[in-house]
Inverse folding.
């Protein structure tokens, strides 16, 4: 049983605020439930009516002779709380609150919504809305909404945070003949949100693909968990808007500066296997492809065309979309050559040339579909005098039945001459596009999902047992000193407690301490002024490199203090950091910025002073981060090319880099008070790594 | 008079190979000319007929009572040469050769095409084709093609290298109500090619935008010259296919490796102001926008919507497309606030909310169009109960008349409920899209063209008077020595002759010579083995750095020879290069690869050993390269950020970098025998630059 079974498939429904007056929302809901063919018991509730649309009307939901599975509320906003309470007392477990006037109208509404949610929780109810269009399920069937249209039956579970978009899409889908299993207007998402409906649709036997429009995610970490699991079962395609608002909060770290406001969503979608559509059009092209086509076994595409130009365009797009042009077997090539005209191209793309009829198309399509090296097929058609597009559509529909495991999509390019054929194809579950590019784009979506499903296993999070208590002590000390930014030596200590190799670093408050530490760790060492107030240490003479004796160290200590006071007067100084100079390695950066929705967002890439210039970075959420994902995160960057051994260099120790990222992930999961973290550079060697500079900021 | 006036607007036409038999090409052409309403004299030519479609038929074109302006040839391929000669002798100046069987069928056909072209040249004729559909001009009017459809009258000049695509697009355009001024099937482009038709359409008063599909460009440099000039007058939008074939030729330079096979086209289009469409759909969205909308003055977009979600999607896209959301004046905001409901959003995007009718739309649209801070407007609509989309279309059509200088595009989202309104808008020259993204995309195209037109002036090529003869001498010497790759010292000399500052470099064949040169230029110096056979000099001990005295230099000389012979045996060595060590600067690369179509293609970007890793490069054709373009080329890279002064560095001498690129451009224009060139690194200082390593390859 799916998670929200009783919401979508209730045995009985009450519509509270039902109306006899056409044009009113309370009328539309009752009317939609009836005309959608709902089989269960329907109870309109209105204290002033005896009967609505042939159904006996009740004054209160508590007077209904049974405890209904679902109550749809369309009462004035001032009555919603009271009615919700009554539902709860009556034992009703599922609410759809249509009524608007909550969070979307401001502060007062938000308070009201909070109260409503309290009532829902108190009575252990679940609620869709408030401020929504309602929901539909074409298999129950039920249309518990005030939408002007009802969807066709199909295999797409659709959810939308915008009610207006629901109306548009329903209208559009009727024209295109596109069907839905479920159709949900999310409204304000006070209780049930996208995560719930994705979890539900994942279990729903009638939903083959989950498609949605969202503007935000309510519970980031849960959303990722749910989507990650669901995407192993069926594809999830979302469009996420609101990406343009440039991150307003000032960023004090490299990671903060490089992770734009949309980065966390982008990462969360990628990491949970959600296909992110870049446009409404792509959303629906993908939805149609997933709802009608099998998932292909691989990325090898064959193209059958009756003209060169469109064939070239399609071939270009195969490469642009990271797909491969199938290479035919000798048998296929021979067979095509024997049976197609001399001028035909028997290699991929197969050109059956301008005078082809439907039989020639049939032969070519059959032959390439039978080739074991072909995973999916695109059929292109341009109108010619010798061709009846409708007949070509017919043979495509017939032939694809013999190859149920291979997706077939089409692009019939033209106007009046192909419109009927295109409709026939669509009705027979073969997507037909007006141009080659979206056809290849939809195949690419199928292939990408297949790759995700093959690669993503339910894997365990990479974990590490850090010295939690020791780190907590450091943070407490820092806070006690009224600081939020850790000194380099403190940061190094934190990392060390989580197993990360750091260049030996210590804080000295006297020249003698500095020299003692230097003697301990060995020369050469570097001295750096330690002060939360000084950002550019070099500029104020706050750094001395290559010190080779205790004498040099003591002298440098004094010099640095002199320099800093010369430039900055009586600036606050915590001491001087002494760090053993380690050999040069490949410079990397590992960073973290805490996202308000999705928690810690990790960054990896080329490090050093040019990190903000080169912007060679990749991101992952720390939550649920697996070793495989860390490896993928590294591979996405140019830094990986460097690590593998660029220009004849020996390969660096990638395994240690993976471990370090995993350890940082554990650290930031264990300590929600870490708001930002930068290790830059992390030096990678042929064996091992060494964290050179670390900056950790904690919440005050 | 436009360049190809007599081809598109002939006073008289002969159709050679005319036929009485419907279904034959020779029939279709005569029929199309007649039914297109052609006013001039039409002479069908067929030795076996007296009359065709009511027109008197002639046996030969030489028997026609006048010298026709245009002859359309649809005779068997075996007769084409003879007929073309006859046309030439008769004094005919324009041919359209429909007949196929030339270059497209292989070697023999290519030879035939070459002969045909010779005849065309001999008689000073111009020819479209062979192997084409023909041409159409809706203002003449004439349809001199065998297409099954005739285009609607409009302002788009269309050219296509694919005949099948012509047929598809015509069929499609009739369904969409899209009109054309000219419609040309380019065929094999033996004589007239895309450059000719672009030049012609640029002068044509009836063509407002030039749109085309091409697979290749015949005369690269002329194409760029023509398009550059034409694009100042009217927009050119092209889709170029065949981008996927990975460059097959092995590349021996960084520039060769980084400039993919499509890079020269990409660069040529950019540099000549051509808007390159990424898909067929984008091609036509842009075509429609340019054919119907004024060019906006700036990039500030206002959005009027009746629902939030689509407004957010559109706002996202404004940013993604590098446009700006208009900021309204106080007056506009006050006016909107006074007249719209309380819940409406009076800032951009203006949300007239769900219960809006056409009057509310009218008010909002009028108000934002009147705002001086608004350059263009997108109207979004989702169907609601209170709204008649057709009436909204009506008010948009009315209002936009009062603002003829501001583009207005629309996205009416829905199906049956909006279809009529969308058609009405399209018929009234207001583009209506099904989703917000293509609407914003089309505005972005208009804005981009406006920016191009504002920035691109008919500017002079950046030129430099190099010591041509001295460089020619060096190349001759290198060739005499049977080499194609110049030694570093030779390359440095070449650059120096073109005014480029190089680190002093000389070739020494004895230790004493090396020491003498070092004494001359001053210490420290570096010694490098000079051999065309040794690629990785460091790996074989072929480099010695930081030499500070004549003794060290002499010793290093001997050491290098020993090392190299130890590693590589009796490898060919030309001597040892002595180079003065120059201070470290910001590392850049300037490179050149000669493109077979477009000539020398320059590259600029971050240099050093990581150039292939970082891939931070931009490209320009050397041909016609202006100072402004060089500056733009630099600004496109991250290297520019470095030059400006990154992390508090002082700015580097960008002016000298510009000069150096200009000097390299002149050098590679002056010497077509230079096939590849890399300066890596070019060091940029606060004052001046210095070329450190240069590799020049010349044709053998």
């Amino acid at each position: 049983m799916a998670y929200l079974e009783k919401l979508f498939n209730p045995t009985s429904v009450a519509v509270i605020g039902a109306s006899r007056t056409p044009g009113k929302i309370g009328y539309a809901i009752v009317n939609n439930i009836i005309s959608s063919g709902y089989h269960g018991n329907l109870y309109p509730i209105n204290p002033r009516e005896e009967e609505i649309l042939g159904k006996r009307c009740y004054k209160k939901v508590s007077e209904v002779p049974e405890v209904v599975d679902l109550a749809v509320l369309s009462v004035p906003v001032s009555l919603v709380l009271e009615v919700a309470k009554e539902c709860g007392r009556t034992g009703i477990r599922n609410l759809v609150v249509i009524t608007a006037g909550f969070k979307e109208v401001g502060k007062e509404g938000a308070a009201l919504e909070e109260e409503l949610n309290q009532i829902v929780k108190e009575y252990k109810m679940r609620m869709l809305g408030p401020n929504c269009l309602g929901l539909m399920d074409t298999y129950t069937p039920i249309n518990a909404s005030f939408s002007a249209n009802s969807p066709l039956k199909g295999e797409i579970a659709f959810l939308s945070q915008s009610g207006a978009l629901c109306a548009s899409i329903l209208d559009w889908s009727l024209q295109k003949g596109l069907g839905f299993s479920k159709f949900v207007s999310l409204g304000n998402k006070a209780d049930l949100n996208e995560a719930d409906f994705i979890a539900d649709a994942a279990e729903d036997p009638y939903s083959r693909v989950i498609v949605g429009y969202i503007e935000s995610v309510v519970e980031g970490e849960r959303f990722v968990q749910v989507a990650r699991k669901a995407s192993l079962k069926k594809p999830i395609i979302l469009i996420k808007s609101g990406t343009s608002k440039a991150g307003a909060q000032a960023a004090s770290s490299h990671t903060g500066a490089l992770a734009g406001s949309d980065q966390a969503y982008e990462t969360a979608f990628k990491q949970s296997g959600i296909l992110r559509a870049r446009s409404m059009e792509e959303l629906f092209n993908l939805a149609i492809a997933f709802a009608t086509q099998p998932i292909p076994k691989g990325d090898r595409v064959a193209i059958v065309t009756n003209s060169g130009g469109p064939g070239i365009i399609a071939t270009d797009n195969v490469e642009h979309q990271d797909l491969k042009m199938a290479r035919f077997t000798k048998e296929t090539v021979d067979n095509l050559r024997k049976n197609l005209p001399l001028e035909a191209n028997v290699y991929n793309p197969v050109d059956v040339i301008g005078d082809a009829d439907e039989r020639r198309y049939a032969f070519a399509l059959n032959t390439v579909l039978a080739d074991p090296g072909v995973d999916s097929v695109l059929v292109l058609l341009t109108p010619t005098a010798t061709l009846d597009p409708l007949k070509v559509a017919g043979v495509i529909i017939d032939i694809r039945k013999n190859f149920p495991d291979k997706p077939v999509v089409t692009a019939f390019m033209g106007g009046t001459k192909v419109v009927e054929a295109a409709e026939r194809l669509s009705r027979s579950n073969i997507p037909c596009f007006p141009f080659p590019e979206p056809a290849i784009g939809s195949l690419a979506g199928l292939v990408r999902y297949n790759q995700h499903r093959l690669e993503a296993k339910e894997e365990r999070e990479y974990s590490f047992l850090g010295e939690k208590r020791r780190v907590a002590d450091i943070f407490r000390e820092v806070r006690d000193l009224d600081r939020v930014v850790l000194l380099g030596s403190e940061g190094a200590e934190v990392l060390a407690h989580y197993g990360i190799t750091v260049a030996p670093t210590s804080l000295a408050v006297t020249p003698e301490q500095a020299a003692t530490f230097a003697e301990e760790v060995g020369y050469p060492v570097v001295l750096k002024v330690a002060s939360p107030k000084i950002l550019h240490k070099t500029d104020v003479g706050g750094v001395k490199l290559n010190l080779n004796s205790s004498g040099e160290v003591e002298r440098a200590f004094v010099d640095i203090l002199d320099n800093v006071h010369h430039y900055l007067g009586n600036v606050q100084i915590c001491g001087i950091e002494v760090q053993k100079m380690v050999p040069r390695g490949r410079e990397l950066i590992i960073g973290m910025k805490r996202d308000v929705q999705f928690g810690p967002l990790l960054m990896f890439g080329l490090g050093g002073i040019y990190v903000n210039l080169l912007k060679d970075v990749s991101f992952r959420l720390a939550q649920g981060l697996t070793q495989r994902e860390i490896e993928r995160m590294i591979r996405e960057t140019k830094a990986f090319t460097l690590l593998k051994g660029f220009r004849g260099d020996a390969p660096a120790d990638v395994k240690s880099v993976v471990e370090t990222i995993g350890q940082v992930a554990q650290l930031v999961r264990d300590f929600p008070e870490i708001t930002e973290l930068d290790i830059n550079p992390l030096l990678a060697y042929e064996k091992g790594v060494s964290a050179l500079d670390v900056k950790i900021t904690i919440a005050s």
Observations:
- The mean pLDDT of chain A is 93.
- Chain A touches chain B through 72 residues (CB under 8 Å).
